[in-house]
Design a protein that fits this description.
Layout (H helix, E strand, L loop, with lengths): L10 H20 L13 E7 L5 E7 L10 H18 L7 E6 L2 H12 L2 H7 L1
Parallel strand pairs: 2-3
Antiparallel strand pairs: 1-2
Helix pairs in contact: 1-2
Length: about 130
C-alpha cells in the first residue's frame, strides 16, 4: 500500500473540512457546553483539515486577541465526543470524523513578523 504524505488535499477533503468548520463555528458561537472550563470562552475555528479517508479531522482553534488557547485544549478534548455527534447530525457522511484540536499559531506568528517589520531599523532598511 502506497502512502502519499505530501499530497495536496482533494476537493472533497476541502469541502468536508469547510463544512465541519462551519458547524463547529456555530456551536462555539452558541457556547452551549456543560464543561466549566469552556464557560464564557469565545473560541474561533480557523481551519479544519480532514484526512484522505475522512475519518480524522484536525481542528485549528484560536482565541482572538489572546494567546492562551492551549489552556482550552484539555476541555476541548473532553467535549470532542459531543462536538462529533453534532457534526454527524449536521453533515451527511458515512462516518463522523474523530476531532482533534490544535492551537492555530498563524495569527501570533503574523503579529510577530508585523512587529519586526515595524521596528525602526528594519523599516529604514525596507523603505
Amino acid at each position: 500500500m502506497k502512502r502519499h504524505t505530501n499530497k495536496a488535499p482533494t476537493q472533497r477533503q476541502l469541502r468536508v473540512g469547510e463544512e465541519i468548520r462551519h458547524v463547529l463555528a456555530g456551536l462555539f458561537a452558541r457556547t452551549e457546553f456543560r464543561d466549566p472550563d469552556l464557560a464564557g470562552i469565545i473560541i474561533t475555528v480557523t481551519e479544519v483539515r480532514v484526512s484522505p479517508d475522512l475519518k480524522q479531522a484536525t481542528v485549528y482553534v484560536t482565541r482572538l486577541g489572546r494567546s492562551d488557547v492551549d489552556k482550552c485544549l484539555p476541555a476541548l478534548k473532553r467535549v470532542a465526543p459531543f462536538l462529533r455527534s453534532q457534526v454527524a447530525h449536521e453533515i451527511r457522511l458515512r462516518v463522523a470524523p474523530e476531532l482533534s484540536f490544535q492551537p492555530d499559531t498563524a495569527i501570533d506568528y503574523a503579529m510577530h513578523i508585523d512587529g519586526l517589520l515595524h521596528k525602526p531599523d528594519v523599516a529604514r532598511d525596507l523603505g
